[in-house]
Design goal:
The protein is of the alpha/beta class. The chain has one domain (12-266): Metal-dependent hydrolases (TIM Barrel, Alpha-Beta Barrel), CATH 3.20.20.140. Helices cover 35% and strands 15% of the residues. The chain contains 10 helices and 8 strands. Strands 1-2-3-4-5-6-7-8 form an 8-stranded parallel beta sheet, sandwiched between helices. The longest helix is centred in the last third of the chain and has 14 residues, at 253-266. 42% of the residues are buried.
């Protein structure tokens, strides 16, 4: 188990955290935060367990206004990367500008809002931009809905799936597991070991070990999901790190926490 006396890597990365201000959300947002999650607070918590870099994931309730995130990325280029929320009609020049700021992917958070995405099936200019920029698509769905979403998306887009992909069951024959294993044979595909409390009763340890078996450690990322919206009572950063050790074993920590995210978000070819 990880302890504060361990020797943490200086290159460990938290690939999934959020920053926001109390009461700030788009019109008709399903969630309006009643508290503020500060970047400096995340930094202090992360550094306390040896995490020195992070990926700021734009919260869906802030919509496509990525300005706060972009400003922070520009101030901390070594420490931070970002995943943006954009509209399907976003102009390629806007994506290029985001790349210069430190964005490395776009996110579709479809959980709770439905999984038919006709605007995105026609967004060829976005998929071409992702290829041109070396970006990936990050997806969050309701439990068991990922195969339906993947069927509507190009099969050659690099993919990151949030919160352990949320299959119906932690077994190799589950439709979500099969879909990702098949996709991983053709295109870079990653699963974030995060949000165990969002799995609808599926055993997180069993699922994490299943992904390790089916995709290998080189396809896994870790995210704290801090500050664990709607589950704030579980936002104990050290405990979230300990979960990863329990799930994958200490021998995979450097691969999951350092090598994979440095390669994906910072383009470190030696990772």
């Amino acid at each position: 188990m990880y302890t504060m006396n361990s020797k943490p890597s200086k290159n460990w990365v938290d690939t999934h955290f959020h920053v926001f201000a109390a009461g700030v959300a788009t019109k008709n947002a399903r969630y309006i935060p009643q508290y503020t999650a500060e970047l400096q607070e995340w930094m202090a918590l992360a550094q306390g367990v040896g995490v020195s870099r992070g990926v700021w994931v734009q919260p869906s309730f802030l919509g496509a206004d990525n300005s706060w995130m972009l400003s922070a990325l520009e101030k901390h280029p070594y420490v931070l990367r970002g995943v943006a929320v954009v509209a399907a009609d976003v102009h390629p020049d806007e994506l290029k500008a985001m790349h210069s700021s430190g964005v490395r992917g776009i996110r579709l958070n479809l959980a709770g809002i439905g999984h038919e995405i006709p605007d995105w099936t026609r967004a060829d200019h976005v998929w071409q931009s992702l290829h041109d920029l070396g970006w990936h698509l990050e997806v969050h769905t309701d439990q068991g809905a990922l195969p339906q979403v993947l069927a509507q998306l190009p099969s050659d887009v690099p993919l990151v799936v949030d919160h352990m992909a949320k299959p119906d069951e932690a077994c190799a024959t589950d439709a979500t597991v099969l879909a990702l294993v098949q996709r991983a044979q053709r295109v870079p595909t990653y699963v974030k070991l995060s949000g165990a409390y969002r799995l609808g009763g599926v055993d997180a340890t069993r699922l994490a070990r299943l992904w390790l078996q089916e995709l290998g450690a080189e396809a896994l990322l870790w995210g704290s999901d801090w500050p664990c919206t709607n589950y704030e009572n579980l936002a104990n950063y050290a405990a979230l790190m300990n979960e990863l050790v329990n799930w994958t074993g200490g021998e995979h920590l450097e691969q999951v926490l350092a090598h994979n995210p440095r390669r994906l978000y910072w383009g470190d070819a030696t990772a």
